[in-house]
């Protein structure tokens, strides 16, 4: 069954593949093909020449310790940036998202992956995330959770929200 996710307030089939996925490891995607592919940032840094002529859309997966500043020179090459949340207390991805949207003006898909709960989605969307990998059973409740709040006290990017929030 294809992986589904929440993107732009809709539940959709994920058209992206990760470089470590079994079908990719088996050779389904190699440079010159058009499969949208997300590479680990460390792989991009060490094997950039291998992927320079990749025929399809490329994305990159940032671990919490990766500095967005290192990605900035190559940002135009990526259609998707995924931030990994390895545990419930890891919040550096929020900062990565805000930096990508606000400082570096990244306009592509900004994805939250890993330990992401529906209670975090509104705050992630306020940091600019517009795509969320969640367990299948959480997708519909998560979509509804994005509309929980209609007003905010602080200014934020809000790129991941469907409607503008009222300011208090």
How would you describe what is shown here?
The chain has 168 residues and is an alpha/beta fold. The protein has one domain (4-167): Rossmann fold, CATH 3.40.50. The chain contains six helices and ten strands, in the order βββαβαβαβαβαβαββ. The protein has helices spanning 22-25, 41-51, 68-71, 92-103, 121-126, 139-145; strands spanning 4-7, 10-13, 17-18, 37-40, 58-62, 78-85, 109-114, 131-132, 151-152, 166-167. α4 (92-103) links the parallel β6 and β7 (109-114). The model has no long low-confidence stretch (mean pLDDT 85).
Secondary structure: elements and pairs:
Layout lengths: L3 E4 L2 E4 L3 E2 L3 H4 L11 E4 H11 L6 E5 L5 H4 L6 E8 L6 H12 L5 E6 L6 H6 L4 E2 L6 H7 L5 E2 L13 E2 L1
Parallel strand pairs: 3-4, 4-5, 5-6, 6-7, 7-8, 9-10
Antiparallel strand pairs: 1-2, 1-8
Give a brief description:
The protein is α/β, with parallel strands linked by helices and 168 residues long.
Which CATH first-tier class would you pick?
Answer: Alpha Beta
Number of domains: 1
Average of the residue pLDDT scores: 85
Helix percent band: 25-40%
Strand order of the largest sheet: 2-1-8-7-6-5-4-3
Q: Would you tell me which CATH topology applies?
A: Rossmann fold
CATH architecture: 3-Layer(aba) Sandwich
Note the total helix count. Answer: 6
The run of helices and strands is EEEHEHEHEHEHEHEE
Q: Looking at the chains present, what oligomeric state does this protein adopt?
A: single chain
Count of individual beta strands = 10
Low-confidence stretches: none
Give the N-terminus to C-terminus distance in angstroms.
Answer: 44 Å
Beta-strand residue percentage: 15-25%
């Amino acid at each position: 069954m294809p992986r589904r996710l929440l993107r732009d307030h809709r539940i959709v089939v994920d058209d992206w593949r990760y470089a470590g996925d079994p079908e990719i490891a088996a050779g389904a995607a190699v440079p010159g093909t058009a499969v949208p592919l997300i590479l680990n940032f460390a792989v991009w840094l060490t094997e950039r020449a291998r992927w320079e002529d990749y025929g399809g859309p490329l994305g990159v997966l940032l671990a919490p310790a990766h500095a967005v500043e290192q990605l900035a020179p190559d940002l135009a090459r990526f259609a998707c940036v995924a931030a990994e949340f390895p545990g419930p207390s890891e919040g550096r991805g929020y900062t990565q998202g805000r930096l990508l949207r606000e400082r570096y003006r990244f306009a592509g898909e900004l994805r939250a992956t890993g330990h992401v709960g529906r209670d975090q989605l509104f705050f992630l969307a306020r940091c600019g995330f517009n795509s969320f990998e969640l367990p299948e059973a959480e997708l519909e409740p998560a979509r509804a959770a994005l509309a929980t709040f209609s007003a905010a006290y602080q200014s934020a990017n809000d790129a991941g929200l469907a409607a503008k929030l009222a300011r208090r």
